[in-house]
Amino acid sequence: MEFHYHPSDEIRGMESDSLNGKKLVLGVTGSVAIYKAVDLARELIKRSADVYVVMSKDATKLVDPQLFEWATGNKVFTEFSGEVGHVVLSRTCDGMVIAPATANTIAKLAIGVADTSVSLTALNFIGLRKPLVIAPAMHLAMYRAPQISEAISKLRSYGVMILEPQEDDVRAKFPEVDDIALAVEVAVLRGTDLRGVRVLVTAGPTREFLDPVRFLTNASSGRMGIAIAKEAYFRGADVTLIHGPIDRTLIPKYVRSLNVTTTTEMLNAVVNELKNKH
User: Is domain 7-189 given the CATH code 3.40.50.1950 in the classification?
Assistant: First the structure.
C-alpha cells in the first residue's frame, strides 16, 4: 500500500486557498534569520501553495535541510549538477521568494553571479520574467551600504520585488512573515497592476470629545483599512494611510501614514491629501 500523507497536509489551506495550484520556490541563504524561513514556508502552505526549498551551502550550516523537508513535504535542493534542477524549478514553478536574503546574495544577483544554488535558481526566474520576491536580513550598516543600495535599485529595475526590512538601531530584520506571504501572493497572482496609481486609505475610529475626559467613538480596529493599504502597496501603488487611534504596531512602516484623532481632523487630512497628492 502506498501512502501520500504528509504532516504539512494538515495545515494546507488553513488560511485561504488563494495560492491553490501554485508552485513556489523558497530560496534560503546563510542569515541568522533563517529560522523564520520555516514559518514562511508553512504560511505559504496555509495559503494552499506547494513549496520547494533551495538552500545555499552556508544556509545548510545553520539549519539542517531535513527541517525544511519536514516543513514542506518536498525534497530540499542544496546543490545542482547534471540534472539542471534550477532550470526545472524555474520553468515549472510560478514564482520564487528569497527569505532571508543576505547582502552577499543581493549583490551577486545584481551582477549576475550564479555561484550558489539560490542565486543560480533566482537568475533563471529573472531571465524568464517570472515573479521574484526578496526579503533582506542583515546588519543595518550593510543594508545601507551604497553598494547594496545600488544592487537593490538595479534588481528593482529588472522587476524584482524587494521588501523593506524592519529596522532597529543595528539591524535590518526579517520582514513580518505575513507581509512576505502577502507580497508573494500579490506578485504571483496580481503583479504590480497598480503601479503609478495613488491610493488613499482611511482606517480606524475617531473620537468626539464630550469633555476633556469622555468621548464618543467606535470599536473599529483599523485592520481592514490596513489590509487594503498593504495590498495596494504590494501591487505598486503610492499609498497613504490616514488612521485614527489604533494599535500602532499594526501599521506597516513601509506605508506612509498620518495619525488623527477627531472626525474633523480626519476630514481635514483627507481633503488635504486629495488636494495635494491624489
Answer: yes
The single-letter code of the amino acid at 236 is: G
What phi-psi label fits residue 112: left (phi over 0), alpha (psi between -120 and 50 degrees) or beta? left
The candidate with the shortest Cα–Cα distance to 37, out of 144, 118, 124, 116, is: 118
Beta carbons of 173 and 165 less than 8 angstroms apart = yes
Contact 255, 237 (CB under 8 A): no
Provide the percentage of residues in the chain whose pLDDT is more than 70: 97
pLDDT of residue 20: 96
C-alpha distances in Å from residue 176, one per residue of 140, 154, 183, 261, 263: 17, 24, 11, 27, 31
Could you please state the CATH topology (level 3) that the domain comprising 198-276 is classified under: Rossmann fold (3.40.50)
Question: Which residues does 11 contact at the CB level (< 8 Å), separation at least 6?
Answer: 42, 45, 46
Pairing label, strands 208-209, 166-167:
unpaired
Residue 70 and residue 67: Cα distance in Å, rounded?
5
Q: Write out the residue limits of the CATH 3.40.50.1950 domain(s) in the chain.
A: 7-189
The string of pLDDT tens digits covering residues 196-244 is 999 999 999 999 999 999 999 999 999 999 999 999 999 999 999 999 9
Q: Does the annotation count 218 as an active-site position?
A: yes
* For residue 278, pLDDT beyond 60: no
Residue 19 in this model has a pLDDT that exceeds 60: yes
Active-site residue, from 20, 124, 218, 259 = 218
Per-residue model confidence (pLDDT) at position 5? 75
Give the pLDDT confidence score for residue 1 in this predicted structure. 45
Within the chain, all domains assigned CATH 3.40.50.10300 are found at 198-276
